[in-house]
Amino acid sequence: MKTQKIFKGAALGMALLLMTVSAFAGSANKGSLQLLDPVTLNGKPLPAGEYSLQWDGSGNNVQLSVLKGKNVVATTPAQLVNLN
Predict the structure, then answer these.
(1) Which among 22, 11, 17 is positioned nearest to 62, based on CA atoms?
(2) Is the dihedral of CA 51, 29, 11, 9 positive or negative?
(3) What are the φ/ψ torsions at residue 47 (nearest 5 degrees)?
(4) Backbone phi, then psi, for 83, in 5-degree steps?
(5) Residue with more model confidence, 41 or 9
(6) How many CB atoms within 10 Å of residue 83?
(7) What is residue 65's predicted lDDT score, i.e. its pLDDT?
(8) In terms of pTM, does the model score above 0.85?
(9) Alpha-carbon span 46 to 56, nearest angstrom
(10) CA distance 46 to 38
(11) How far apart are the C-alpha atoms of 38 and 29, rounded to whole Å?
């Protein structure tokens, strides 16, 4: 059961990153996300709802922050991936 939650969190992180890079390539370092189900990201529970995304860093390695309003509710290391 715990392995399933860890995998779900890792899958969410990768999905967040891919969605952010592809959908918001024109908006530098910002994006948005709607979660339909509660998830756990880097050990932090995120209830279903609307979130803002921001990332900081140079090159492909960045720090991804998930915000609810102006409050950071979770962070995780991430990699930017160019999608052709």
Answers:
(1) 17
(2) negative
(3) -65, 160
(4) -110, 125
(5) 41
(6) 7
(7) 95
(8) no
(9) 21
(10) 6
(11) 24
Burial 34-57 (b: 16+ CB within 10 A, else e): ebeeebebeeeebeeeebbbbbee
Count the Cβ atoms, other than its own, within 10 Å of residue 80: 17
Paired with 30 in beta bridges are 54
Amino acid at 25: A
- Rounded to 10 degrees, the C-alpha dihedral 34/10/83/26 comes to 40
CA-to-CA dists, residue 44 to 12, 25, 37, 69, angstroms? 12, 26, 14, 17
* Tokens coding 5: 């939650």
d(CA 72, CA 7): 22
The whole-number pLDDT of residue 29 equals 87
